[in-house]
């Protein structure tokens, strides 16, 4: 039960890049002959006119690496075009989000930049290298009501099907909400850093150990320290997705190649205390095996030896598979088990029913079967539509 390396088993689930994407990762991130061979293999395996979305996101990095290697690819103009488009789009994102962050600062609300925004500022250091589909920020959960009001005042609205309607209790249970504005910019507001750890005090140590970063020389914001940045990135990536993910591996390598003082003891401690050992175990092993990530062997060995609880094993297995009719109910059960403190079976069951009733926004228990059936039908329709496309 200690090793659940799904990518090694031949089961290419949605958190692992495909073989073609692995060629692209190597071509974009490695050096010398290894990068050149990977680039040649990728070019022979793909149709650039039908490249998948995730691979498209790596083309700016590929352009930079091929240029540094002196490779004359007839498609260099195409790669450069993606890089320039990324540069322009990210400048627009940054301008819009800067204005919002200033509103939060004026209101005395701390914010923490996450994921792509933070990665560009701290590690890529080039607006054109890291495409973003949305912007992610973390706010203190106790400020959630004020944050919602500021967003509404600024013309932002909660996306449809983004979760339950906002109430006083909502941020204590759910990790994030998705917002959009009239210009089509997408914003993920995180009430908690990790969806697995949505409970009081879950983020205190992340805030305590955060560091400051400067945007355009005139706006200071909080970001995760490099160690927590890597931990968050890997944990967030290790779950099923409709399309195999790629960016997480590139982001992880950007951190490891820029930071030489990663506190591996803290990462191991966080993984143990939060019951997130398997994401760290799988993510670090994958990065080391595929891309030669500079992770010390003794760290990998120590992580591999950590025992895994049955709860974490089954939760991780569940998060890396999809297509189940009642996936949402099972996922909510795992989320509830992380916060539910009733020890008896009857207490756990009753607490879970209360939890799912709130999550589905129903007032009475007798309404649950109807809502559960409706959810299952929507799930079938969504998966069926995706596979048809």
Outline the structure in words.
The structure is a single chain. Helices cover about 55% and strands about 5% of the residues. It is of the alpha/beta class and about 400 residues long. The protein folds into two domains: about 5-320, Beta Polymerase, domain 2 (2-Layer Sandwich); about 325-389, no CATH class. It has a seven-stranded mixed sheet. α1 runs antiparallel to α2, α1 packs across α4 (about 60-70) and α16 crosses α17 (about 345-360). The longest helix is centred in the first third of the chain and has 31 residues, at about 75-105. The radius of gyration is 21 Å and the shape is globular.
Query: Under the CATH scheme, which architecture of the largest domain would be assigned?
Result: 2-Layer Sandwich
Roughly how many Å is the radius of gyration?
21 Å
Task: Quote the average pLDDT.
Answer: 84
Give the helices and strands as they follow along the chain: HHHHHEHEHEHEEHEEHHHHHHHHH
Query: How far do the termini sit from each other?
Result: 36 Å
Named CATH topology of the largest domain: Beta Polymerase, domain 2
Q: How many extended strands?
A: 7
Q: If strands are numbered along the chain, what order do they take across the biggest sheet?
A: 3-4-5-2-1-7-6
Helix content: 55-70%
The biggest sheet, with number of strands, parallel, antiparallel or mixed sense and barrel status, is: 7 strands, mixed
Count of separate structural domains: 2
Tally of alpha and pi helices: 18
Percentage beta strand: 5-15%
Tell the overall outline: globular
Quaternary state, please? single chain
